[in-house]
Design a protein that fits this description.
3-stranded antiparallel sheet; 4-stranded antiparallel sheet; alpha+beta; 6 helices
Length: 198
């Protein structure tokens, strides 16, 4: 967990359960809470003018959701949507900022997490600018695996469907399927029971 859940509860944190497809917050809303995932997965997405989904990120157990917006006065540029049933602990923004002021290690952990996410986002954006589908997909896989403790080959089960990979990279699903098969033949990744291992 990024911030100890007992510490969050001691500052007024409460837990909420969301079903798959439930909206946690919507684009344009003002950030009022710190959210941390206890179980399940959450996607950050944006719908363009044609209602096409662009997934910005997928977050899992122990990670926080758009925490960086608690330090500036801007509205959410994305929606947060539960992908699976998930439990989230939330704490009001003023109490979370007080927690960080009073607990140096938690403040350091949050800054490090934000910095790592921004670093990998830069890499991901550079890869997504490529005209080559395999470069885009490779960038996404490296980004998601970067949060795993085990970096050995094929140790990471990619928690994304082919459709989600398409939504993140801006590619067509057919292109993703072809590229993934080619990457498997090149031993860059492995597929077992339709799951991608990187």
């Amino acid at each position: 967990m990024l911030v100890d859940t007992h510490l969050l509860k001691s500052y007024g944190g409460i837990t909420e359960t969301f079903s798959s497809s439930d909206i946690i917050f919507e684009e344009g809303e003002t950030p009022k809470y710190y959210f941390q995932i206890i179980s399940g997965s959450v996607k950050l997405n944006h719908l363009d003018e044609d209602a096409k989904e662009l997934i910005q990120s997928i977050l899992h157990k122990g990670q926080s959701v758009c925490e960086l917006l608690l330090f500036i006065d801007e509205s959410y540029p994305v929606n947060a949507v539960a992908i699976s049933e998930c439990t989230i602990i939330k704490i009001p923004k003023p109490k979370f900022l007080l927690l960080l002021d009073e607990h140096h290690q938690s403040a350091t952990d949050v800054r490090k997490f934000i910095s790592e996410r921004l670093y990998h986002k830069f890499i991901m954006m550079q890869n997504n600018a490529s005209k080559h589908s395999h470069v885009r997909i490779k960038g996404i896989l490296i980004y998601f695996k970067s949060f795993s403790d085990d970096q050995t080959p094929y140790s990471y089960e990619v928690p994304l469907t082919r459709q989600q990979l398409a939504s993140i990279t801006g590619l067509r699903i057919e292109t993703v399927i072809r590229a993934v098969k080619k990457m498997e033949s090149e031993k860059f990744l492995k597929i077992e029971n339709r799951k991608i291992y990187f």
